Amino acid sequence: MASAQSPPAKKSRSKAVLNGDSCTEAVNGKTCVQVATNADTPAEDPAVTLFREYIRIPSISRGDNYLQHYAEAVKFIQTVADDIGLPHELIEVIRSYIFTVLAIYNNVEHCSQVTPANKIVLITVEGTHPELKSVLLNSHYDVVPVFPDCWKYDAFAAHKDENGDIYGRGTQDMKCCIIWHLEALRRLKKSGVKFSRTLYITAVPDEEMGGMLGMALFIKTERFKKMNVAFALDEGLANPTEAMSVYYGERSAHWIEVTCPGNPGHGSRFIENTAVEKVEKLLRQALALPTGAKDQVRMSNATVHSVCGVCVTIYRLEGAPCLKLGDVTTINVTEIHGGITHNVVPNKFVVVLDMRFSPHEDHQEILRMVQGWLDEAGEGCTLKFIQESPKYPMTSTDDSDPWWRAFSTTCDKHSLKLEKEIFPAGTDSRYLRTLGIPCLGFSPLNHTPILLHDHNERLNERVFLRGIDIFVDLLPALCNVETTV
């Protein structure tokens, strides 16, 4: 733990915030809560109040006024760090450098959206042995858009109901994480706990847009290289059961655009070799894979599955009762384009496939299977990649691994039942794992419905507060790991 002194007493946040059921005011680093609705209602925990304040910032990825809201999120995190007495700095996004990164990741189409205003907050807790490799806690401050009419409460009001459920975009994904990290550090610093290794906390933008203007840029900087990271934690998912999910890898996203040409003509005629015939053949093949994958997820023993005559090997997690979504490859049709008017048979259709490849499978074999679908669909069918991702490394969860041992032992202390999984979608963890940095995705959210990106995203305050308790023990365990790596 860094030995930096707390800043002089001052009103770090003096404005009152009316949140519907309480009025909060932060003075001298302490949050006072005055409940207006019921004099017998117990005062809200200051960490919960802080969390709700963060949720009220509508930092939607590249939404209306997003630069302003990004700046508000950055300022919020800086203010909390100052209140705790944690040194921090801003990593500026540089336009010319982003173009280089986008080219590296074959995503030049994003260039029109490049802005120099994206900023990364980097908080440092210097260890007593800074020569050791460091530990990184990563989070992102951007959130996805909402459909306001589908929400029970305003998605950015952070409304808390009588059960303690806090409604708001970002409650699960993932504004809870950095509040856990900072509030755990507040307690540890107050107790005088110190770390052997330096601890870094990052808050990055753009994760919900793929991380191209966030973590993908940051890992290319000299500042990141100087951090000398040995291990990282990033976001996970909620779990509706007693168990808590921990993610040691993730699937690779491949977005494929398939063009099916055909003979055009009048809509009243019988026409041979049309584009839609080829699309029908393609869809019959593509939609068969998810169906088989769903069957595999329900199975507990079989390890080999035949899809459209192609043998796809699927490996079960050791000790798991059944496969999880991240263990299999899925395909969804997300776009179909074609036609110019109601009575003309089009000369082509374009189909976009969202494919998520499991790290347990041979990615080249899957791509050969897709090419086989095109060959069977008919002459002239072609594909191009909108996005092509590498096969990402997986982080060790073996008991002999010192990082996993420190993590799992701490979870045992809290009697947590862990379920080891492959993350079914994408997070910034993939950028870190690609560099050879072991990274676990972990959000201690059990007994919580999975509502990220969904209507009425929410998190119960009791579950939220327990997360702080877990990180109070987890941070010293990780930052004091005795290993040469």
From TrEMBL:
<feature type="active site">
    <location>
        <position position="142"/>
    </location>
</feature>
<dbReference type="InterPro" id="IPR001261">
    <property type="entry name" value="ArgE/DapE_CS"/>
</dbReference>
<feature type="active site" description="Proton acceptor">
    <location>
        <position position="207"/>
    </location>
</feature>
<dbReference type="Pfam" id="PF01546">
    <property type="entry name" value="Peptidase_M20"/>
</dbReference>
<dbReference type="GO" id="GO:0004046">
    <property type="term" value="F:aminoacylase activity"/>
</dbReference>
<feature type="domain" description="Peptidase M20 dimerisation">
    <location>
        <begin position="248"/>
        <end position="378"/>
    </location>
</feature>
<comment type="similarity">
    <text>Belongs to the peptidase M20A family.</text>
</comment>
<keyword id="KW-0378">Hydrolase</keyword>
<feature type="binding site">
    <location>
        <position position="208"/>
    </location>
    <ligand>
        <name>Zn(2+) 2</name>
    </ligand>
</feature>
<feature type="binding site">
    <location>
        <position position="173"/>
    </location>
    <ligand>
        <name>Zn(2+) 1</name>
    </ligand>
</feature>
<dbReference type="InterPro" id="IPR052083">
    <property type="entry name" value="Aminoacylase-1_M20A"/>
</dbReference>
<feature type="binding site">
    <location>
        <position position="453"/>
    </location>
    <ligand>
        <name>Zn(2+) 2</name>
    </ligand>
</feature>
<feature type="binding site">
    <location>
        <position position="173"/>
    </location>
    <ligand>
        <name>Zn(2+) 2</name>
    </ligand>
</feature>
<feature type="binding site">
    <location>
        <position position="140"/>
    </location>
    <ligand>
        <name>Zn(2+) 1</name>
    </ligand>
</feature>
<dbReference type="GO" id="GO:0046872">
    <property type="term" value="F:metal ion binding"/>
</dbReference>
<keyword id="KW-0963">Cytoplasm</keyword>
<feature type="binding site">
    <location>
        <position position="235"/>
    </location>
    <ligand>
        <name>Zn(2+) 1</name>
    </ligand>
</feature>
<dbReference type="GO" id="GO:0005737">
    <property type="term" value="C:cytoplasm"/>
</dbReference>
<dbReference type="InterPro" id="IPR002933">
    <property type="entry name" value="Peptidase_M20"/>
</dbReference>
<dbReference type="InterPro" id="IPR011650">
    <property type="entry name" value="Peptidase_M20_dimer"/>
</dbReference>
<keyword id="KW-0862">Zinc</keyword>
<protein>
    <recommendedName>
        <fullName>N-acyl-aliphatic-L-amino acid amidohydrolase</fullName>
        <ecNumber>3.5.1.14</ecNumber>
    </recommendedName>
</protein>
<dbReference type="InterPro" id="IPR036264">
    <property type="entry name" value="Bact_exopeptidase_dim_dom"/>
</dbReference>
<dbReference type="Pfam" id="PF07687">
    <property type="entry name" value="M20_dimer"/>
</dbReference>
<dbReference type="GO" id="GO:0006520">
    <property type="term" value="P:amino acid metabolic process"/>
</dbReference>
<dbReference type="InterPro" id="IPR010159">
    <property type="entry name" value="N-acyl_aa_amidohydrolase"/>
</dbReference>
<keyword id="KW-0479">Metal-binding</keyword>
